[in-house]
Amino acid sequence: MSTIAQEANFDGLIGPTHNYGGLSDGNLASANNAGLVASPRAAALQGLEKMKTMHEAGLRQGILPPQQRPHLPTLRRAGFTGTDQDVFEAAWQHAPRLMKNCLSASSMWAANAATVSPSPDSVNGRLQLTPANLSTMLHRSIEHPQTQRALETAFPFADVHQALSEQSVFADEGAANHVRLCESRGAQGVELFVYGRDGYAAHRPGYPARQTRQASEAIARSHGLDPVRTVYALQSDAAIDAGAFHNDVVCVGAMQTLFYHELAFADTAKMQSDIRAAAKGLFEPIFTEVPLAEVSIADAIKAYLFNSMLVQMPGENRLTLIAPLETEENIATKNYCDKLVAGNGPIGHVHYVDVRQSMRNGGGPACLRLRVTLTDAEWAQVNEGNRFSPGLYETLKEWITKHYREELAPEDLKDPAIMMESFEALDALTRIMGLGSDFYPFQRGD
Known about the structure:
The protein has helices spanning 28-32, 40-56, 72-77, 84-94, 96-102, 138-141, 144-154, 213-222, 237-242, 268-279, 297-303, 325-329, 331-342, 356-359, 376-381, 390-403, 416-433, 441-444; strands spanning 5-12, 60-64, 114-117, 128-131, 159-160, 178-181, 190-195, 230-234, 251-254, 257-261, 286-290, 309-311, 319-324, 347-353, 369-375.
């Protein structure tokens, strides 16, 4: 049985403290661009323009608000006391590395916000969301309480679960390691969970494998998924060591199609076989594998070919890949995209978007959005301030221009004014998006 449903992309609105901190081990772009002067205003406007492009194309578009930065609750739990300014200044003086983590605007990458199972897949017929604990990286591990609050505000009709235990066995990175395949959005689908390690095994050498199988299994259980329609696949060490810190750096899927690099999975044949078995009686999966001989793993990661949005545009039979400009500028990935479009496969169009500010920190178009499949009735119940509209676009554009700095250098982050500017901006945003006067910790006096 199928109901009418569409996929909505809820993009993370980039926050006022957007900077290049180089905090993410295994993320090559983050490491390579650490210390550069950032442009928070340009970054936020680029993200907003991407949302506008998707909305004007006829897709459902949502917005998730940025989180409070600096995150004073973390600093206070670390022993800093006094006024907000006292905490700010003391943390910079005595724990500057911790302070950098508490100023990161990383919640912009909404693909890591949560894992989402739409109502057709869950046993109770309700939308399921589990905030990711993001326990591998300090700067991201502080996000999930506010993420839960944001999801509960945006989706008041859904089951929003608590994040998994913040422990290595249950390390969870959200939808960046999750793909849903289906015949139609409102029908039962197959959910693919990709993990980098067994949580009970010894840590592998090299870059961290961030997602555990135990975390993926726990989420599938709590979401009430049918085990027959659920697949677990191991990410390859080759991909992780090359800089694919999340599976969405080497794989993306939509509808019946899984688009991935030859080195994405530890056992590609098993992954395909398992998906075919899970999809039996529902649909015939389509596997589009990019050969290593045509696109090296280094080019795929540098250009973020797979960290693109794969979407079904209204009125189009073939899928569209929303890729960053960097994919167009890389000879290997551009040539492959041209070949893809010229062929008769499931992907018929490639559209390039400018998200350079995000890309310099290691986040492409796919990182910036959380995919949420919603029935028409569910979409109507989404908090109005979380649904993109031309009017909201204009208001947010004015808000960004008013409150965001044009440039933000590493030394600028030490100025207490950046904290006050950020809090003032976020306080205004809660009124614009209808989030409530106690949405952020600083509004509650936390």
